[in-house]
Design a protein that fits this description.
Elements lengths: L1 E4 L5 E4 L15 E6 L3 E4 L22 E6 L14 E3 L3 E5 L5 E5 L8 E10 L5 E11 L8 E6 L28 E5 L8 E2 L2 E4 L3 E5 L4 E6 L13 E13 L5 E11 L4 E5 L7 E8 L4 E5 L2 E4 L5 E7 L3 E7 L2 E8 L2 E9 L4 E5 L5 E10 L4 E4 L1 E4 L7 E8 L13 E4 L2 E4 L12 E8 L11 E7 L7 E9 L7 E10 L3 E3 L22 E6 L8 E13 L4 E12 L4 E14 L3 E3 L2 E2 L6 E3 L6 E3 L6 E3 L6 E3 L6 E3 L6 E3 L4 H4 L3 E3 L8 E3 L1 H5 L9 H7 E6 L2 E7 L9 E8 L6 E5 L5 E5 L2
Parallel strand pairs: 3-10, 11-18, 20-42, 44-46, 45-47, 46-48, 47-49, 48-50, 49-51, 50-52, 51-55, 52-56
Antiparallel strand pairs: 1-2, 4-8, 5-9, 6-7, 7-8, 9-10, 12-16, 13-17, 14-15, 15-16, 17-18, 19-22, 20-43, 21-27, 23-41, 24-25, 25-26, 26-27, 28-40, 29-32, 30-31, 31-34, 32-33, 34-39, 35-38, 35-40, 36-37, 36-39, 41-42, 53-54, 54-55, 56-57
Length: about 750
């Protein structure tokens, strides 16, 4: 207000008004960025107020930021939410009054880069507000799974938890020494601070463990059923384990560890196959009595899947019995069992050969027919010049006392020999007639014959068949005898002593065809309803033609494991008709353990197999195959070949050859050298470069370069020859055909 006064002193009051334009705050949009799952923290100095203007009024005394909300609508101010957690689309924002804030991005929410937007409001000292946005760009994080697959082998299954195994099962595979039942791996998901959710789980077939660091182990503990597919096939995806990997921001990814399983299969692991044709050949002579030969003809195993079945086929072969560990085969000639082949899984096998009688040829010395006459107490049949003996015939009516008057007399007719007895012209029930052979010089001294035959005829009492008991006396005193009963004899049929079956226990002696016969008693059994006469009596010698040779070729024994895989071994069995007790095996093989094998006087093949074996070839030109292990080889007489196993190059164990003879014996390194692959020597000169023989103190050492013809190898001793000095000539077979000569130095 002012006063104005003129010259005359007149005054007036008035006013001067001032309008003030109010200053207001100004909030500018903010942008920041964060990685998916990460925490973004911004201090007040760099917070949302950094690019905002408070104006002349300054910020409100309670704080500049007065509200915050999710979204992008700035048409109205935000009035709440300061210091609170505001959930956005992809994370949570906490905005403070001083402009500082934090944003926690949520892990695993986006699959591409995204923006999370929030609205906030600032207020000045006189209450004016300004609203704008805070945008958070969230960078997508994509973890890539590290999917891994590895393979285990059923053959490696065993019943022991070895180093590295997570456990073990209850079955044994075909290669239990292998460690291939367990596999390991290391997951490597790319990212920052990646860790893994630990896993420890046991399935029906194995154990799986995963550590937080990504190291994993799987141990197979039981076999899988591989189905109809035959052979050592691989079961893909047999087991699968899902894991979770998480980075430092909490982003996760799932992946898998897959396990493939190689199916174990059954196998004939050791056969006596000397010539390498895949067939085990046995040959036996015809023994005088049933003889069992024990040996090892084959060895088999079913592998991890266990027993399924076992079978055999072959002409004239019957399966007598079978089990998981054994099969018994009857080798037949018609309806007769002539041999029994017993095969066991562990190789303790046998061949029983039954005696086969040859064809008996009856060579008659004398024959006599009854003529009418008698009855008489005894009857002497004079064979004249046809023989140097006669026949004394006596009868027994079976009624005590013997030789009672008129009853035990021989009564003959043109129809045959009989006892007077009840009917007078027949051998009735309980009656017998005896033919004793006596020297014709005195008709009393016992005389032996080779064979005897007769017929029964003239049946009475309505009989169509008769039961006849035959006693054959084995000494001149007629005290030792064997006895056999012929059931259902028919009229006119020939009964020959050497053709009867005398195997049953009877009498006090044991008759075998060809034994001396001093007498024959023919007894009509007490059960006969009538009688018969004896006729067609012939005395003679017999000769035996050996039975025919029998061949049982192509006997196929098939083993099947529990999931249907098979292995087959072929056997040939020859049974000679020549008499003898001898079995010849194509080769003589050991087991998987430590064996002592000795050859015959012939040319043998001895196979040691696994283990530390002693092989002695004996006489003949022998092949001694030591196999794995530390073996002692003695060739014996003859030109012998010592085969050295390729394993000697890697296990550094040398076979000991006890009697190497220069100029006769050969050391076969063919397979060992072949194991060197492309570096194997193929010429005599190359073999000389690879093989060296040194000698010290009377012992030679066969050395082989373990790198073959290539440089950089080491000389490894594979065989030690005792009693072989400097200058000795050693013959080396290097390719199964050609030999190289090396002098011991």
């Amino acid at each position: 207000t002012y006063t104005a006064k003129d010259a005359n002193g007149n005054t007036v009051t008035g006013t001067v008004g001032i309008n003030v334009i109010d200053d207001v705050p100004h909030a500018s949009a903010d942008i920041n960025a964060v990685t998916e799952g990460a925490l973004l923290t911004v201090a007040a100095a760099n917070g949302v107020l950094l690019n905002d203007v408070s104006g002349a009024d300054g910020y409100a005394a309670t704080g500049a930021v007065v509200g915050v909300r999710a979204g992008n609508d700035t048409s109205t101010p935000a009035t709440t939410g300061v210091d609170a957690q505001i959930a956005g689309q992809y994370g949570t924002l906490t905005l403070h009054a001083d402009g500082s804030y934090s944003y926690q991005a949520t892990a695993n929410t986006i699959s591409a880069n995204a923006t999370d937007t929030f609205v906030y409001t600032i207020k000045d000292g006189d209450g004016d507000t300004s609203t704008t946005t805070l945008a958070i760009n969230v960078a997508n994080v994509t973890l890539a799974a590290d999917n891994q697959t590895k393979t285990v082998d059923e053959a490696a299954l065993d019943t022991v938890t070895n180093t590295g195994d997570l456990g073990h099962g209850t079955v044994t595979g075909s290669n239990p020494s292998s460690t291939a039942e367990t596999v390991t791996g290391q997951l490597a998901v790319a990212g920052t601070g990646v860790t893994y959710t630990p896993i420890s789980t046991t399935t029906a077939h194995g154990i799986f463990q995963l550590t937080a660091g990504g190291a994993w182990t799987y141990t197979l503990t039981s076999p899988f059923d591989s189905g109809a597919t035959q052979g050592a096939n691989t079961l893909t995806g047999a087991e699968s384990f899902t894991y979770t990997a998480k980075d430092a921001n909490g982003n996760t990814v799932t992946g898998t560890v897959g396990i493939n399983v190689i199916d174990d299969v059954p196998a004939f692991t050791l056969v006596n196959d000397g010539n390498g044709d895949g067939i085990v050949s046995l040959s036996a002579l015809n023994p005088s009595t049933a003889t069992t030969y024990n040996g090892q003809f084959a060895e088999w195993q079913y592998g991890a899947d266990g027993f399924g079945s076992i079978s055999a086929t072959g002409q004239n072969v019957q399966v007598a019995s079978s089990s998981s560990s054994q099969i018994v085969l009857n080798l037949m000639e018609g309806t007769d069992v002539v041999a029994v082949l017993t095969l066991n899984a562990n190789g303790t096998d046998s061949l029983e050969v039954v005696h086969r009688a040859g064809d008996v040829v009856f060579d008659p010395i004398a024959a006599t027919s009854a003529t009418a006459g008698g009855p008489t107490g005894s009857l002497l049949v004079d064979l004249g010049t046809a023989a140097d003996f006669n026949i004394l015939v006596t009868g027994d009516d079976g009624v005590a006392p013997a030789n009672q008057s008129g009853k035990d007399e021989v009564n003959t007719s043109s129809q045959g020999w009989a006892v007077k007895g009840g009917q007078g012209q027949t051998n009735d029930a309980g009656e017998s007639i005896t033919f004793k052979f006596v020297d014709d010089s005195n008709n009393s001294t016992g005389h032996s014959i080779d064979d005897f035959k007769f017929t029964t005829e003239g049946y009475t009492g309505g009989m169509s068949t008769a039961k006849v008991t035959v006693l054959v006396y084995l000494d001149a005193s007629m005290t030792h005898y064997d006895q056999v009963t012929v059931n259902n004899a028919t009229s006119g049929s020939v009964i020959q002593i050497s053709n009867l079956d005398w195997s049953a226990a009877a009498g006090n002696g044991d008759y075998v065809a060809g034994n001396a016969i001093y007498g024959v008693k023919i007894l009509s059994d007490s059960t006969n309803k009538g009688g018969f006469r004896v006729n067609g009596v012939e005395v003679g010698t017999h000769s035996e033609t050996p039975p025919a040779d029998l061949d049982f070729n192509g006997i196929h024994v098939t083993i099947t494991d529990h999931d249907g895989d098979t292995a087959t071994q072929t056997f040939n069995v020859h049974i000679d008709g020549t008499t003898g007790s001898q079995l010849t095996v194509e080769s003589i093989a050991g087991t998987s353990g430590d064996d002592n094998l000795t050859g015959t006087g012939g040319n043998d093949t001895l196979i040691g197999g696994a283990g530390n074996d002693f092989l002695d070839g004996g006489a003949g030109n022998d092949i001694l195959i030591g196999g794995a292990g530390l073996n002692h080889l003695t060739g014996g007489a003859g030109n012998d070949t010592f085969v050295i196993d390729p394993s000697k190059l890697t296990v550094h164990v040398a076979d000991v050859i006890a009697d190497y003879t220069q100029g006769q014996d050969v050391i076969d390194l063919s397979d060992l050298l072949k194991s060197l692959g492309a570096n194997a020597p193929t010429t005599d000169a190359q073999t000389g470069d690879v093989v060296n023989v040194t000698s010290s103190n009377g012992t030679a050492h066969v050395m082989v370069d373990d790198n073959g013809t290539a440089a950089g190898g080491n000389m490894v001793e594979v065989a030690t020859l005792t009693n072989v000095g400097v200058g000795s000539t050693i013959s080396i077979l290097y390719d199964h055909t050609h030999t190289h000569t090396e002098n011991a130095t």
